[in-house]
Sequence to fold (386 residues):
Amino acid sequence: SPVWREPHYGVFMVTGFEEAIAVYHDPGTFSSCNTVSGPFVKFPVPLEGDDISEIIETYRDQLPFSDQLPSFDPPKHTAHRALLMRLITPKRLNENEEFMWRLADRQIGEFYAKGECEFISEYAGPFTLLVIADLEGVPESDFGAFRSRLGNLVGGEMSHKPLEFLYDQFATYIEDRRRHPRTDIMTGLATATFPDGSTPEVKDVALIAANLFAAGQETTVRLLSFALKMIGERPDLQRQLREDRDRIPNFIEETLRLESPLRGQFRLARRSATIGGVEIPPGSSVLVLPGAANRDPRMFPDPNEFEIDRANARQHVGFGHGVHLCAGAPLARAEGRVTVNRLLDCTADIQISEAAHGPVGTRRYEYLPTYLFRGLTNLHLELTPT
Fold:
């Protein structure tokens, strides 16, 4: 069944593609207030009644991560996302991609000579961190501090300490730019207004910038590591990509479909709803599982097979869907395209390290112990230089 109720917490699990889309596109019925905490944090009061919207709005600020954009619902989400989109304009993305190519060369240069690397700590982590820092206009003089303080973000430890560092840094930047405007990206963010013309508080802008920084880096690290794992495991795919670089964009999409970085996203039913023929009562926790939806055979034939030329690969929900579609999706796609291209440029072959992960047929990989993200903790590669 594409929708079923698990017995331990009574959560409605949504595993079908069509059903996932239905939940994602109905924020009026399915609130994101519990998107991180799910059923594991008890709501402050009983969720009783045919429509619990008023209860949600009264008590949502008491839930974990309630100040984060992913937990907002419209219209608040709409207004705050508009600020975020000031950072992700086509012009800004083009400028950021130019930085990516230079950064990829620099990052690969740190391990290229030794012919091997632990890909996540030596490339994916620092690369994604500095890309998002550049996008958000962090001064290059502060890159070192960000890299030293936020290195543990790529280990899946989304604790409040690194987030507090980000809040403090961005609040300082925003306050400075409001007092002393410049012709830089951060000033544009600092002086942005909500759609109604009102000026957001410094903390609101800092929270949005910090959330984009942390969440964007985490998911993209997982995408890059799965892409390189696939290239290292599949010589046939690697050969196809080397012979035809135009296949790289769809390769990235198929990687996102088959190895979705987002493990699950919770919602809370405001009122009774029927999804996939299953009635969901008000007050119920719902868990949308992108990885399962992306392997729904009704949408993707032979869903467990990696097909580099799959025609509808880009229709995956690896970035979510609806109003909460990942705002940084274009950035992640560009990072994937740049990374794969550059690594193919400077190598004749990329293989998985047998010393670290075992021989073909008995590979050993470790995954993050979290229900939020799906990703490798490490990926050791052997590189044959060109």
Q: What stands out?
A: The chain has 14 helices and ten strands. Confidence is low (pLDDT under 50) at residues 155-160.
